[in-house]
Design goal:
The complex is a heterodimer.
Chain A (H helix, E strand, L loop, with lengths): L1 H28 L15 H10 L6 H13 L13 H36 L4 H15 L2 H15 L18 H39 L2 H8 L4 H23 L1 H14 L5 H10 L3 H29 L1 H8 L1
Helix pairs in contact in A: 1-12, 4-5, 4-7, 4-10, 5-7, 6-7, 6-10, 7-9, 7-10, 9-12, 10-11, 11-12, 12-13
Chain B lengths: L2 H13 L9 H30 L4 H27 L5 H13 L1 H18 L1 H4 L10 H4 L19 H37 L1 H16 L2 H11 L4 H10 L2 H15 L3 H8 L4 H37 L11 H7 L9 H28 L5
Helix pairs in contact in B: 2-3, 3-8, 3-14, 4-16, 5-8, 5-16, 8-9, 8-11, 8-12, 8-14, 8-16, 9-12, 12-14, 13-14, 14-15, 14-16, 15-16
The chains are: A mainly alpha, B mainly alpha.
């Protein structure tokens, strides 16, 4: 087990390094310059050169790369060019905001996806199953920005039930824990719904598929033959065997939650990682883009690792396999 | 040249069209004509295509460029058909598959709707009621509700939404076709060789694929497209670059099990070169998987392209794109709902139909995914 974990960690380390390198060179080789927004005819070229020097932009590429690597090794992500603040401060602010969003969405997605998928598989080939499958397909195919617009139009513009932008009301609501909590929750509802339903549909499709694969196998027949109630056969025997693959898919959907969050955060003006990335890409803010891609890759790899580990938890065969 | 030589040449050429075997004359004819059509189309439209993608395209350029896309769609069809036919077993297998496909009602619906989108994109200049770029006097025509003269209303500049949705199909489908073709080719070759070679190289190759799959593709896509000038080709390349790994994995799994089969062993024993075994024996037998994976991938790519256009990184105005149109309608969600609702529905329709088609093909050809 320890050896397996170590090997995975080494793989993850290599992957993170490759990601960092690739992102670095993509950013550096691309046309555009973080300082270009400050160029103007009146500006003194010497001042500009001094600023470039201050940011280290005038050094040869390999030197810049080595310096970046070294500072990353020491856990220093550099300073944002457009806001002049340490990148780690900015990330420390935005990552929790994104996590609130994506983790709520992930938990909602898992609950809805597993339950509806199982429900669909339990009533397989019935009218319920067919209509559920179609609903899954539509939500799975729905671009999240369009879904978001529909919800905004309906719930915040027409009915005016829910806010459509930001994390909290402006001006802030009166003090008091419950008032603040309710305000936060209200702002979460729409983005989380959009994020969760799309991925829940994908998960439900997958759950249904793997349950249907399992349900035709011999051991299910055996369980039925020895007189177990159908509910137990389905929820314990079949589910237990379908779960490992489903867990893997949940792990693989972590990048989608991050990627999907880019668009959702833009639409709902949620000041998280996604919005930060888009803004800094347009501002050519190299350190922020690099750090965000780095963190993104780390989170994705962490998700995969988690999926692998829980795979072992859900499926004893994998544990045995690893030990040998 | 004697008559016999011509026959020999014909059989040689057929040898190199994957999935088609000698003696299946009707399909050979179909596939031949489709390939021929592709080449003619490319010759006809090369200049126009070039102009439409690299210069700022005039409308005629775009229309000409579409001819090449038509050719490519036919190429896709030509690759799909033998995949469905999968000439190796008897015609009975094909008949079985076709029967299963046609019995799958939702798959047929998906096929029909998808073909409607394809048809709309080909015939856009004929069926669109207006010029999608024509701006009328804004004060008079701006934000007109759907009516008999404008079935989907007009947008901020008084342009006909219906015409723009129809022309937008071209962008989405063209990007999808190019990117999927590229992804399918790269993925198939990579997966087939990785599975065939096996051992250490296979391990490393699959780790690479895993690593690339782990990448947050939308983040990568945004970074690449935003940092380099966003040409249509870059969008296609990046979408293909994030899409080929799934195909590679599936093809590899197929090849690993295929290479133990007797006919491959026989081919090895008879001293055929490795490349030829992969090309003639392994890939044709994995084509069903490729077709299914490519069709499902197509849906994802159309979706991703709409995300890019929505963020303003895809096709640039005035060329109409569905994602961009939804974005333009964001300020008037209630007062002029038609400006964003119809392009949004078009995206959903195209993606759903493509997914239905892919699911149907998967069930009909009994391909295991994932």
């Amino acid at each position: 087990m320890i050896r397996f974990l170590l090997r995975r960690l080494v793989h993850a380390g290599i992957l993170v390094f490759v990601t960092l390198t690739a992102t670095f060179f993509v950013i550096k080789l691309a046309p555009g310059d973080p300082l270009s927004r400050y160029y103007s005819p009146e500006i003194n070229p010497q001042v500009m050169a001094a600023v470039r020097h201050q940011w280290g932009l005038d050094r040869p590429l390999p030197v810049q790369y080595a310096r970046t690597l070294w500072s990353y090794l020491r856990g220093d992500f550099g300073v944002s060019i457009s806001s002049q603040r340490p990148v780690s401060d900015i990330l420390g602010e935005t990552i929790p905001r994104t996590l609130v969003l994506t983790l709520s969405a992930l938990s909602l997605q898992v609950v809805i996806g597993l339950l509806l998928g199982a429900l669909s598989a339990k009533n397989r080939y019935s009218v319920l199953d067919k209509s559920l499958s179609f609903v899954f397909l539509v939500f799975y195919s729905l671009p999240s920005f369009y879904f978001a617009f529909v919800l905004i139009a309906l719930f915040s513009l027409k009915l005016q039930w829910l806010p459509s932008a930001n994390m909290y009301s402006i001006p802030p609501v009166a003090a008091g824990f419950f008032a603040v909590f309710a305000d936060r929750a209200a702002h979460l509802v729409l983005p989380v719904t959009v994020l969760a339903l799309g991925s829940a549909a994908a998960l439900a499709r997958y759950t249904r598929g793997s349950l249907l694969d399992v349900i035709h196998q011999d051991f299910i027949q055996t369980a039925r033959a020895k007189g177990l109630p159908e509910g137990r056969v389905f929820w314990i025997h079949a589910m237990r065997n379908a779960l490992p693959q489903v867990v893997t898919v949940i792990g693989l959907s972590v990048p989608f939650l991050l990627g999907g969050a880019v668009v959702i955060e833009k639409i709902f003006a949620w000041p998280g990682m996604g919005a930060l990335v888009v803004d800094s890409i347009f501002a050519r803010d190299y350190p922020v883009v690099l750090a965000a891609n780095f963190i993104g890759a780390c989170m994705v790899i962490f998700g995969n690792l988690l999926a692998d580990l829980s795979h072992g938890w859900a499926d004893p065969r994998v544990r045995l396999c690893r030990r040998s | 040249m004697k008559w016999g030589d011509a026959r020999l040449v014909r059989s040689r050429v057929i040898d190199y069209i994957p999935g088609v075997r000698r003696g299946r004359s009707p399909w050979v004819a179909v596939v031949f004509s489709l390939h021929f059509y592709l080449y003619v189309m490319i010759l006809v439209a090369r200049g126009a295509l070039w102009a439409s993608l690299f210069r700022s395209p005039s409308f005629g350029d775009v229309c000409g460029g579409i001819a090449a896309v038509i050719g490519l769609v036919f190429f896709y069809a030509a690759s799909v058909l033998p995949g469905i036919v999968d000439a190796r077993p008897s015609g009975k297998v094909f008949a079985d598959r076709a029967r299963r496909f046609w019995a799958h009602r939702s798959a047929v619906v998906g096929l029909v709707v998808f073909l409607m989108f394809v048809g709309a994109s080909f015939l856009a200049p004929l069926i669109a009621p207006y010029d999608p770029a024509a701006q009328t006097e804004p004060a008079l025509q701006q934000y007109q509700a759907p009516s008999s003269s404008h079935p989907m209303g007009t947008d901020k500049f008084g342009r006909d939404v219906c015409s723009r949705v129809i022309f937008g199909a071209r962008v989405s489908l063209a990007v999808g076709v190019f990117a999927v073709l590229l992804a399918a080719v790269v993925g198939t070759v990579f997966g087939a060789f990785s599975g065939y070679v096996g051992g250490r190289a296979d391990d490393v190759a699959m780790r690479v694929v895993d690593g690339l799959l782990a990448f947050p593709s939308l983040l990568l896509l945004l970074t690449l497209v935003a940092f380099f000038a966003n040409s249509l080709w870059l969008v296609i390349l990046v979408l293909a670059g994030t899409g080929w790994m799934g195909v590679a994995r599936l093809v590899r799994a197929d090849v690993v099990s295929l290479k133990e089969r007797d006919f491959v062993q026989a081919a090895v024993a008879s001293g055929i070169g490795h490349g030829r075994i992969v090309w003639r024996h392994l890939i044709p037998n994995a084509l069903g998987t490729v077709v299914v994976a490519a069709t499902l991938r197509f849906a994802v790519i159309v979706l991703l392209e709409s995300y890019l256009s929505f963020l303003g990184l895809g096709v640039q105005p005035p060329m109409p794109s569905w994602g961009g149109m939804v974005f333009e309608g964001r300020d008037v969600l209630l007062s002029a709902w038609w400006t964003s609702a119809f392009p949004g529905l078009a995206i959903v329709g195209a993606v759903v139909s493509c997914n239905l088609l892919g699911d149907g093909l998967r069930d009909a050809m009994d391909v295991r995914m994932g």
